[in-house]
Amino acid sequence: MKQHPQAPARTTGRRRLATLATAAVVVSVAATGCTTGGASSGATAGGQVSTDTIRTVVNADPTTFAPVEVRNADDYTFNRLLFSTLVRRDENNKIVSDLASKWDITPTQGTFTIRSGATCSDGTPITAGVVAESLKVFASPDSKSSFRPLVLGDGPATVSADDAASTVTIKLAQPWTDLLQGLSLHATSIVCPAGLKDPKGLTTGDVAGAFSGPYTLTKKQHGVGYTFTLRSDYKTWPAYDKIEGTPARTIEASVNSNASAIANELLTGTKDIANIRGKDTTRFDGNKDFSTAVIPQGSLYMMFNEREGHPFTDPALRKAVAQALNVTAFNQAATGGLGELYSSFAHPGVPCSNKDTSLLIKSDPAAAQKVLAGVKIRMVGAQVFGPNGAANTYVAEALRAAGAEIELRNVDVATWSTELTQKIDGWDITVMGGINAGGTMNGALSTVVGTPVEKGGLNWGGAVNQPVVDLESKAMTQTDSTERCATYQEAQKIMISDAHVIPLSSLPSQVTVRSGFAMHTMNGQPDESTMRITK
User: Fold this and answer.
1) Complete DSSP assignment for 297-364
2) CA 16/CA 530 separation, integer angstroms
């Protein structure tokens, strides 16, 4: 059954990845209709019934609880439970209210009216002034957020509040047409005054009054799990169109990166909602006790450290890496063959994503060997890309077969993201899993061009690549979508043809939900704040 890309649907079986890339999917096997109250239940393996708890899983400990510091999927998961943003992206990228009830946007300015009744987890009213102080930290030139240029552009931005009018105004130094969509990103989440006063405690999640979202963090055990408790005073939920069921009073999130073990927990009744990758996803095929939706959790591509002194400043070496790889074999290692082969570093649902396969560098191991023989390469890979990092192992073996002398380190996600962004001279090449939380070409480009991470940007690879940056800036002034896509196509041609990136495949993830529970995905991305008990 194929889903129309513009229509939301109840998901009762596996869907083609391509159609889910742009659709909003309700993951639920509850009865037809919206359940808004009453007792809810989920049977456990021991026969007990949970009326108020959802048990879920994250792959690794979060690297931070501070919104301005978020950098990976597990950070995003907990952020959505603890914090609110001005706006959210509903299905089909429609912008809806969160803390802002309405807004007025131009290419250089946004004015937002703050909803009444919103409070912090310590009871402090969330006024325009509270919102502005949080956004000032995000917008500061000294901001710790690598997402700042993605939301505000590279120039200065000012944030001001009018408490009498309940408005917050953001003024930009140059046109930036992604401002509104950018303000839905996790990094722009509003931190309450208590959290701003204690940045270290905010990072570790130890400021009880820091949270603006529906839950508070009430228990944490590194490497084991985290417990979140619903705020009894929380009323200002994001204005998503169709959210069914009752929010859980307690959410228990355990830490486990083993897909087989997670699948076992779901099947034996000890977990209710989880994302699974790889062949273990097929264990739920035809099982009426679960609802599943396959989403492109990440775009997999080769990314190079192009800082001076590293081998891959040489375009011939980068192209040789592309020639050494077989994308079908990579996809088998990374996803068990379940992923979709990509022709861009942005997934196909991103507006303006490249569809021209002629830009891709063809596999040619013999040609690669002539260039890579004897080249020393340090590779750091994330273990979640294939079983025990099988995707990274495949790449290393392919490069080794081409004569390269390669050192591979397979590490957990938190270590991988930390080392590649903070120990910038310790690696040469990696398989990148781009999440692109904003769903824009600007977001896809941000990890590989522009301001490097060590200077406060999102660019892990380190090469500014000014011609592409100039094209990106041009696109951000173009309101005509055809012209804008033509500009972005030119940028992608440079990135792909010169092998600054090597597109590989999707990293599909299956949102798997037990009967009696639900969670929405919007635009191919789950929102954990929409987890619900539905019966």
Assistant:
1) EEEEEEEE--STTSGGGSHHHHHHHHHH--HHHHHHHHHTT-SPB-SSSS-TTSTT----GGGSPPP-
2) 23
In 18-63, which ranges are E strands?
25-28, 42-43, 49-50, 53-58
Does residue 15 sit in helix, strand or coil? Answer: coil
Cα first-last separation, the chain: 26
Dig out the tokens for 25 from the structure: 């999917």
Which has more pLDDT, 476 or 221? 221
**Contacts within 8 Å (CB) and 24+ apart, 269-272:** 269/43, 269/44, 269/45, 269/46, 269/514, 270/44, 270/45, 270/55, 271/55, 271/56, 271/57, 271/514, 272/42, 272/50, 272/54, 272/55, 272/56, 272/513, 272/514, 272/516, 272/517
Q: What does the angle CA 225 – CA 193 – CA 140 come to, to the nearest 5 degrees? A: 95
**Long-range contacts at 154-160 (CB < 8 A, ≥ 24 apart):** 154/450, 154/451, 159/132, 159/135, 160/132
169, exposed or middle or buried, with CB in 10 Å at 0-12, 13-18, 19+? middle
Ramachandran bin of 345, using left for φ above 0, alpha for ψ from -120 to 50, beta for the remaining angles: alpha
Q: Is 162 helix (H, G, I), strand (E, B) or coil?
A: strand
Instruction: Give per-residue pLDDT as tens, 302-343.
Output: 999 999 999 999 999 999 999 999 999 999 999 989 899 999
Taking only the tens place, the pLDDT of each residue in 406-438 is 999 999 988 999 999 999 999 999 999 987 777
Describe the chain by its helix, strand, coil percentages, rounded to 5: 30, 25, 45
Residue 468 tokens read as 């592409």
Question: CA-based Rg of the chain, rounded to a whole angstrom?
Answer: 22
The CA distance from 171 to 379, in Å, is 41
Which amino acid is residue 389, in one-letter code?
G
Q: Is 229 exposed, middle or buried (0-12, 13-18, 19+ CB in 10 A)?
A: middle
Contact (CB, 8 A) for 490 and 356 = no
Give the C-alpha separation, 317 to 239, whole Å. Answer: 49
Look up tokens 């009216």; give the residue: 113
User: What is the reported pLDDT for 50?
Assistant: 56
Count, in order, helices (H) and strands (E) of the chain: 16, 23
- Distances in Å between the Cα of 104 and the Cα atoms of 21, 65, 111, 113 are 29, 30, 5, 9
